[in-house]
Design goal:
The protein has 4 helices and 40 strands. The protein is of the alpha/beta class. The chain has 2 domains: 93 residues, MurE/MurF, N-terminal domain (Udp-n-acetylmuramoylalanyl-d-glutamate--2,6- Diaminopimelate Ligase, Chain: A, domain 1, 3-Layer(aba) Sandwich); 216 residues, 3 Solenoid (UDP N-Acetylglucosamine Acyltransferase, domain 1). It has a 12-stranded mixed beta sheet, with helices on one face. A 10-stranded parallel beta sheet has the order 9-12-15-18-21-26-29-32-35-38, with no helix packed on it.
């Protein structure tokens, strides 16, 4: 990316204070600024950096008042943070704007590839696969037979999509994500016979606008479909088991695990290391605190915490009581001694 300050000002509808013809070709923090760098100042705690930064251009608020001379060129906008976020989005789009099919990719003759797609080196596109327009399949991805990848969806390097799965439009799957591996289905044989594998013949459906973090696994259903509804955001290292349904716009942080046939409602937030047992339902707009274990059905519009998870205010009281247990044990022991003495 290389732009003149005046081009960026036009893009962000801001005004230049300084050299409008200066060029920038990189983004940087204001405290780590360097020549040719573009940064921003949104938090007043960082104001002192602007007087010594080496960044060529700094985005500041319209109402920013310098207390001493500013040597760098400033771009004044209404909201510096949002303006910089817009630039980050543009920069990212430019960086990832890849088009073309590598000669080192394998594409089955029956597969259908949309317009303006990118298929990287050593990617494997199986039989009867359909990939939408402007999709990107980075190197070493695997897309199994009969799977569908929507328009403007990106599979970063090393994503594995097993056969018969459906991924919607404008999704992002980060490196190492696995979609459609077998669900954890085994029938105990009793005694020393071990387990018999139960065939997993369903699939995974990921709707539009879903983002899946690195090394996250979404298992295929035993029968029917494991479903991730539109707008869901899943962090790295999460596990979505067979026949799970995740409601639209729900977000879950790293190391969260949803056991088989559980259902999570829409607009929920599951913090890191949350565990949800199988065959239960979590309502809409539920917030689950970090490291909580959800073991029963949860109604909508509630915040829960702990293991087993309880309503948050109740759980806070329990935590207070737990901290007092040692003192309570001593007091009870003393009372028992006094009681014994009184009886004697």
């Amino acid at each position: 990316m290389k732009f003149e300050a005046k081009e960026i000002a036009q893009m962000l509808q801001g005004t230049i204070e300084g050299n409008e013809n200066i060029w920038v070709d990189k983004l940087c923090k204001i405290e780590e600024g360097e020549e040719g760098g573009l940064s921003f100042l949104a938090n007043p705690k960082y104001s002192h950096y602007i007087y010594n930064t080496k960044a060529s251009l700094v985005i500041v608020a319209n109402d920013f008042v310098a207390e001493q001379e500013v040597k760098t060129t400033m771009l004044r906008v209404e909201n510096p943070y949002m303006a910089f976020a817009k630039l980050l989005s543009v920069y990212n789009e430019i960086q990832l704007n890849k088009v073309g099919v590598s000669s080192q990719a394998f594409i089955h003759p029956s597969a259908k590839i949309g317009e303006n797609c990118y298929i990287g080196e050593y990617a494997y596109i199986g039989e009867n696969v359909k990939i939408g327009d402007n999709a990107k399949v980075y190197p070493q991805c695997y897309v199994g037979d009969n799977s569908r990848i929507g328009d403007r969806t990106t599979l970063f390097a090393g994503v594995k999509v097993y056969s018969n799965n459906i991924i919607g439009n404008e999704c992002i799957l980060h490196s190492g994500a696995v979609v459609g591996a077998d669900g954890f289905g085994f029938a105990p044989q009793g005694g020393e016979e071990g387990y018999s594998k139960v065939a997993q013949i369903g699939n995974v459906i990921i709707e539009d606008g879903v983002e899946v973090g690195a090394n996250t696994c979404i298992d295929r259903a035993t029968l029917g479909s494991t479903i991730v509804r539109k707008g869901v955001k899943i962090d790295n290292l999460c596990q979505i088991a067979h026949n799970v349904v995740v409601g639209e716009n729900t977000a879950m942080a790293a190391q969260t695990g949803l056991a088989g046939s559980s259902k999570v409602g829409k607009n929920c937030i599951l913090a890191g290391q949350v565990g949800v047992v199988g065959h239960i339902e979590v309502g809409d707009r539920v917030i689950v605190g970090a490291q909580s274990g959800v073991t029963r059905n949860i109604k909508s519009d509630i915040t829960i915490l702990g293991s087993p998870a309880q309503e948050v205010n109740k759980m806070r009281k329990i935590y207070v009581y737990e901290r007092k247990l040692e003192d309570m044990e001593k007091r009870i022991s003393e009372l028992e001694k006094l009681l014994k003495q009184s009886k004697q």
